């Protein structure tokens, strides 16, 4: 469906008392640019993709692995896939993103193998009590 902007009078006009002058627009743009450049310097915090998961479940596991190592991660996927509960196919593909400065460290962590055969050196029941978990049978 398309419409002409002539059919919507005033819809696309800027809100406020009237149009701003070019000087006012330049001043507000300069202020916002100054605010952005003084907060981060040259450090690029833009999130980058470090893992492309086949579905949301795999992405959540990867995110948990990164967060357990102290790297903040976010999951980004197609909304339509989660709405319809798709677990396979192109609409189920989900990306895991981390801040750009931590990307190489995250990739290194994800490329290392986990030693699943390692024995837990403590008592798991005591550890659960320390963590405040109730593991008693009901």
What is the element layout, followed by pairings?
Blueprint (H helix, E strand, L loop, with lengths): L21 H19 L6 E7 L2 H13 L5 E4 L1 H5 L10 E6 L3 H9 L12 H7 L8
Antiparallel strand pairs: 1-3, 2-3
Structure explained in plain terms:
This protein has 138 residues and is an alpha+beta fold. It has a domain at 47-111: Alpha-Beta Plaits, CATH 3.30.70. The chain has 5 helices and 3 strands. The chain has a 3-stranded antiparallel beta sheet. It is extended. Residues 10-15 and 31-39 have low confidence and may be disordered.
CATH topology of the domain at 47-111: Alpha-Beta Plaits
Spell the H/E element sequence.
HEHEHEHH
The geometry reads as: extended
Provide the low-confidence segments as ranges: 10-15, 31-39
Put simply, the count of helices is 5
Mean pLDDT across residues = 75
Q: Tell me which CATH architecture of the domain at 47-111 applies here.
A: 2-Layer Sandwich
Q: What composes the largest sheet?
A: 3 strands, antiparallel
* CATH C-level label of the domain at 47-111: Alpha Beta
Number of strands: 3
What is the radius of gyration computed over CA atoms, rounded to a whole number of angstroms? Answer: 25 Å
């Amino acid at each position: 469906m398309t419409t002409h902007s002539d059919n919507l009078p005033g819809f696309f006009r800027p809100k406020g008392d009237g149009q701003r002058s070019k000087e006012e627009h330049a001043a507000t743009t300069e202020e916002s640019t100054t605010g952005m450049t003084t907060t981060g310097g040259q450090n690029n915090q833009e999130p980058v993709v470090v893992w492309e998961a086949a579905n949301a479940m795999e992405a959540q596991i990867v995110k948990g692995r990164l967060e357990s190592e102290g790297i903040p991660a976010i999951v980004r996927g197609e909304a339509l896939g989660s709405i319809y509960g798709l677990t396979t196919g192109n609409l189920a593909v989900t990306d895991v993103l981390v801040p750009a400065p931590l990307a190489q460290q995250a990739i290194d962590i994800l490329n290392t193998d986990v030693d699943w055969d390692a024995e837990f050196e403590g008592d798991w029941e005591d550890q659960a009590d320390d963590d405040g978990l109730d593991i008693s049978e009901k």
